[in-house]
Write a sequence for this structure.
């Protein structure tokens, strides 16, 4: 696309936005960004603002400026790259580096195209900015120290060529106006009639044509003099009611003050009489209160004594009743129990309890196994004794053989006691051999009785046990039986400790029950000694009941009398306090009053206190009302008085304030003279103002020429079913009146409208000027006309006219009309018509809603008028040459593929066919 003098050839991103790296070719007929939602299409287009707008505050993003900086520039460093062709035909790359902070953003430029790998390290991370400067030093790398210098670079205004990137042949004023239009193109904001009107006026103003006049600036001296006359006239007009109100308020204040003084004199004597009567009433109530207090103290002492007597009687009665109930219960106990039998049963239980407790104390649960082993040993031992008593044993055989005591002791030692005590027939196979062997055992004894046989060396005291020490078998049997019984009892206790403890507790309870019965029988004997019988207790109970009832009745009577007296005393106290408070109030008020030396009214002291108090309250309210009225009147007087005093001070008069008011009494003549003077001054200045209005009409002529140029540029534009788009100027009635009222200007614009008379035109201009005179509003060209937008549809015979672009029948129509008018306004900003301007990009989202024919028409129009259309939609369009398909990978996006489509050759169409290109005249 080399036929474009200045344009964006490519854009590149390094670690920016949603892309790690990206390079797109924009040097094409049209660009189509394809991808699902949130893949980064809109944010990719929004970054184009960094190329055209020097300052961040001029750019517009979806999020805030701080969030957008952090989105496009990451902390590790990010690059935005724009490869452009300048107006001179040179290729330069404009770049922006940043780390997400406002002060970190740097604009730079260098010669030639960019390579993405130049901005990456070997680890594929963003190259540090200092290293980039070193790498591109030989390509006239230049860094802009201020964003304002970058704006001058885009206009080619720098004296050093390495800074310039001339993309626009415009002045700074028109370039800034162009940026306002480009904001709408990149965001498709709604443009309304007021915006278009303002753009047209700005274009006219660049030709040094004035479109507004301010009376305070252009006619300062005369206008100030007229204003001073007008202010003085208004002050005189306002002075008359102020003076009348001032005098009226003074009269009312004097009348109210006189009435207040009369009331105050009478109120002084009235308050003195009320104070005296209240003092007497206060003393009387104090005496009554003291008498009632003495009676209350006497009644209180009587009630206290009676209450103490009743308390003693009540305590005695309770004790008697308790003893009576106890006497009855103990009598029943004595009838059902014998004291001797109860005592005998208690002793038996006590003995059994001691034995069981002793056994429990001597036996522990952990001795059960040991006791069982002991029982088994005793069982074996008693079995041996029984056998010895009933059968022939080895011991018996030794006795029958005639062995002496030493030999029998030795044999018993050598043979186990258990074996020796068994029946001989059970263990002896040959009794003779047994006896021979037993005889030889004595051969191993030496002279000292030491046994040295079988490898043993035992002294006599070890193996010899005298038979005289042996327990007889029958006694031994009885002893073993007793021990076995004791061991069995101990085992039973050890194995059944809880049950035995329960038995012990039952015994304790039974013993306690027996003890309680014995105690009750002893208590009955004591009560019998005190009362003798139940009838004596009953007689004492009746007597105490009667005494307590009598005391209670007397106490109630005394308490009721005390309550009535206390209530009466409260009434007296309230009346006393009320009298004291009223007296204090009246006394304070009387002390604050101004004394009156006149005689008090006759019969004042003879009247009742209640009547005087009612009149006192009424009179005090009347005085308060009069005081309030005086304050209100004083407050009302302050406003006119301060206003009059301010006027008096401004007048700097030598006479007194009162004399000055008298001089202002006749205001009619002064007002008439000032009005005449004001009219003469106004007639002089309005002649000059009419000349200024004629210049406004001249400025309107320049607006007409710009609108004509705009209509010529968009005359042959056809989009979809729209065959013609146009803008018309509609003069206001004020401009027509100016045309008629200013001689010599009628033939410059249009034929005069004969429907309105010259007098009506003068009156309308006069009304407009009066508004300016009264409110200080400037004369502005925008008040003289408004715009009307016209769209001719192919299916309608008449064009549709609207005063706003967004009021047409559909969103598609509104979008098409906005684009055409935007691009037409940009064309008007071109400084030199023989130089091709920069190819301006604009963005249209959701292009899928536009059919193929309309889209081809729109692209053809952009090609003819040097604009770059950038579209976006979810699907590839076969009618757009370059489709860039994006995919999402996690929180990043990437360019998946580039689909290039060669358009089919279009058939030659007739002149009246839909065509966006303009036909030469």
């Amino acid at each position: 696309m080399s036929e474009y003098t200045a344009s964006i050839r490519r854009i590149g991103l390094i670690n920016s936005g949603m892309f790690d790296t990206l390079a797109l070719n924009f040097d094409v007929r049209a660009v189509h960004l394809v991808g699902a939602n949130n893949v980064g299409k809109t944010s990719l287009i929004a970054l184009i603002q960094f190329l055209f707008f020097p300052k961040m505050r001029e750019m517009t993003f979806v999020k805030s400026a701080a969030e957008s900086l952090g989105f496009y520039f990451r902390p590790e460093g990010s690059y935005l790259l724009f490869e452009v062709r300048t107006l001179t035909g040179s290729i330069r790359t404009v770049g922006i580096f940043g780390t997400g902070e406002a002060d970190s953003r740097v604009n730079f430029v260098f010669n030639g195209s960019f390579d993405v790998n130049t901005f990456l390290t070997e680890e594929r991370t963003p190259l540090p900015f200092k290293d980039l400067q070193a790498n591109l030093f030989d390509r006239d790398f230049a860094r802009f120290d201020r964003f304002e210098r970058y704006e001058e670079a885009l206009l080619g205004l720098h004296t050093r060529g390495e800074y310039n990137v001339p993309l626009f042949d415009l002045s700074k004023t028109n370039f800034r106006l162009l940026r306002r239009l480009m904001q709408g193109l990149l965001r498709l904001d709604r443009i309304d009639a007021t915006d278009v009107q303002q753009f047209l006026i700005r274009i006219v103003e660049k030709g040094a044509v004035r479109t507004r006049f301010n009376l305070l600036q252009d006619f300062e001296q005369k206008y100030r003099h007229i204003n001073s006359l007008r202010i003085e006239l208004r002050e005189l007009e306002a002075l008359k009611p102020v003076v009348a109100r001032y005098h009226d308020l003074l009269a009312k204040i004097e009348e109210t003050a006189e009435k207040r003084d009369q009331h105050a004199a009478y109120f002084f004597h009235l308050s003195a009489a009320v104070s005296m009567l209240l003092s007497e009433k206060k003393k009387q109530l104090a005496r009554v209160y003291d008498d009632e207090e003495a009676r209350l103290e006497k009644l209180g002492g009587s009630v206290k004594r009676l209450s103490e007597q009743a308390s003693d009687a009540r305590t005695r009665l309770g004790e008697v009743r308790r003893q009576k109930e106890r006497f009855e219960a103990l009598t029943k106990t004595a009838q059902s129990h014998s004291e001797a039998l109860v005592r005998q049963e208690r002793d038996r239980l006590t003995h059994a309890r001691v034995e069981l407790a002793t056994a429990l104390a001597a036996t522990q649960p952990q001795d059960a196994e040991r006791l069982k082993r002991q029982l088994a040993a005793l069982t074996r031992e008693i079995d041996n004794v029984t056998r010895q008593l009933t059968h022939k044993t080895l011991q018996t055989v030794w006795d029958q053989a005639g062995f002496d005591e030493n030999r029998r002791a030795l044999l018993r030692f050598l043979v186990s006691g258990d074996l020796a005590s068994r029946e001989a027939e059970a263990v002896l196979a040959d009794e003779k051999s047994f006896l021979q062997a037993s005889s030889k055992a004595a051969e191993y004894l030496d002279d000292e009785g030491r046994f040295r046989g079988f490898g043993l060396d035992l002294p006599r005291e070890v193996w010899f046990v005298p038979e005289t020490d042996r327990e007889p078998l029958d006694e031994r049997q009885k002893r073993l039986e007793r021990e076995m019984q004791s061991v069995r009892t101990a085992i039973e206790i050890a194995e059944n400790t809880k049950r035995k403890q329960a038995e012990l507790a039952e015994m304790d309870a039974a013993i306690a029950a027996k003890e309680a019965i014995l105690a009750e029988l002893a208590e009955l004997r004591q009560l019998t000694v005190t009362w003798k019988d139940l009838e004596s207790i009953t007689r004492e109970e009746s007597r105490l009941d009667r005494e307590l009832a009598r005391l209670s009745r007397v106490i109630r009577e005394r308490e009721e009398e005390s309550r009535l007296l206390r209530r009466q005393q409260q009434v007296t106290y309230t009346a006393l306090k009320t009298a004291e408070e009223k007296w204090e109030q009246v006394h304070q008020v009387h002390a604050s009053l101004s004394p009156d030396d006149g005689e008090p009214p006759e019969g004042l002291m003879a009247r009742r206190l209640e009547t005087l108090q009612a009149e006192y309250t009424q009179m005090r309210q009347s005085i308060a009302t009069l005081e309030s009225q005086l304050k209100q009147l004083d407050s009302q007087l302050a406003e006119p008085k301060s206003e009059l005093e301010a006027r008096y001070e401004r007048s700097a008069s030598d006479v007194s304030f009162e004399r000055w008011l008298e001089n202002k009494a006749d205001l009619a003549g002064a007002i008439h003279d000032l009005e005449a003077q004001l009219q003469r001054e106004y007639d002089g200045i309005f002649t000059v103002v009419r000349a200024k209005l004629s210049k406004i009409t001249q400025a309107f002529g320049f607006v007409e020429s710009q609108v004509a140029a705009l209509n010529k540029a968009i005359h042959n534009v056809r989009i979809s079913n729209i065959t013609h788009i146009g803008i018309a100027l509609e003069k206001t009635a004020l401009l027509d009146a100016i045309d008629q009222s200013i001689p010599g200007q009628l033939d410059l614009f249009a034929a005069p409208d004969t429907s309105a008379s010259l007098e009506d035109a003068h009156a309308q201009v006069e009304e407009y000027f009066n508004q300016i005179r009264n409110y200080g509003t400037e004369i502005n060209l925008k008040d003289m006309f408004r715009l009307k937008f016209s769209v001719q549809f192919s299916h309608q015979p008449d064009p549709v006219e609207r005063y706003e672009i967004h009021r047409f029948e559909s969103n598609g129509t509104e979008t098409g009309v906005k684009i055409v008018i935007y691009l037409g306004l940009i064309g008007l900003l071109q400084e030199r018509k023989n130089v091709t301007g920069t190819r301006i990009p604009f963005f249209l989202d959701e292009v899928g809603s536009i059919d193929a024919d309309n889209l081809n028409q729109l692209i053809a129009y952009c090609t003819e008028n040097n604009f770059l259309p950038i579209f976006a939609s979810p699907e590839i369009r076969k009618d757009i040459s370059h489709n860039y398909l994006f995919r999402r990978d996690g929180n990043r996006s990437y360019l998946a593929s580039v689909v290039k489509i060669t358009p089919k050759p279009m058939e030659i169409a007739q002149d009246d066919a839909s065509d966006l290109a303009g036909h030469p005249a």
